[in-house]
UniProtKB/TrEMBL annotation:
Record field: compositional bias (Low complexity): 119-130
Region Disordered: start-end pairs: 116-148
Organism: Chaetoceros debilis
The protein's name in its UniProt record: Uncharacterized protein
Amino acid sequence: AECVRLSEHAGGKITADDMVETVVTISSKVDPRTYCAWLETSIFPEINLNRRVLDCLIDWCCQIADDFDCKGGHGIEASIRLLETFERSMAKNAQESHSSFAFFSPFVTSNPRDGNVPIIIDTNDSNSSSKEGRPGTTAKNDDNSDPQRKLHIKLMHSRIIQSARELGLSRKVINLQNFQKDGGAEVIARELVQLYFSQSKADSTHLSERTEDIQAFCQLSNVSLDHAVAQYADELCSRNEVDDRILTMAEDLVQLCTDPGVKCEITLKFLQAALLSPSKPDCLKKLAKEAVL
């Protein structure tokens, strides 16, 4: 498309629709490193980002980002690269649009400014919602009604997945396309807590470091670590057989939490589970006393 745009063909320029159609034909098999710079420097500066164009481009971008992660392609890093290119380019486009507004204002008056003359707002906009008989976009609309917010959320989900996988989360647990459907960041946090305890059995030398990592993840994804720990404790105590190995995990689980109420809740779950166990680890007696105090 860039070659055609710069050529003498068709007067040396193609329409914005032609450029958009060229972009959306790019498949997920193509490495985004080969075209992200082109999008940012040659496509976005040349097109008018009206709502129709935005919807088309962002739908394509989000679908390709999903495919990168879900179809064994270029991976979540490629998804983030493409999404960041779009977000950065649109922010720059919006900034330039606001800057150009200083040279043209829809606020006009029939005479030089006079305190007795009301300001008239020029609403002769072909994109006006009232003109087309459609309700205007409001804050009450869902996230999908705002293409830029949809893009931002997709990028946020990508970063959460990348962070979780760096901590050892399996690709099988969740992918970008099914992020919300499969439970989102809360499910990931619970899986990381489970992974945390499975790793701590094998190697306790980096336990505090892993604790900091999972705390940082929960802060990044805006989820409660206490809630994730409580979910994992509930899963452990709901098993048909709760042995000593599981019961002795109670103390470590409680130590991961900061909310006293959650600490007591987890302690109670393990005490109830211990009623069906032939042995009672000493740590449970200690936790019970602390909960009472």
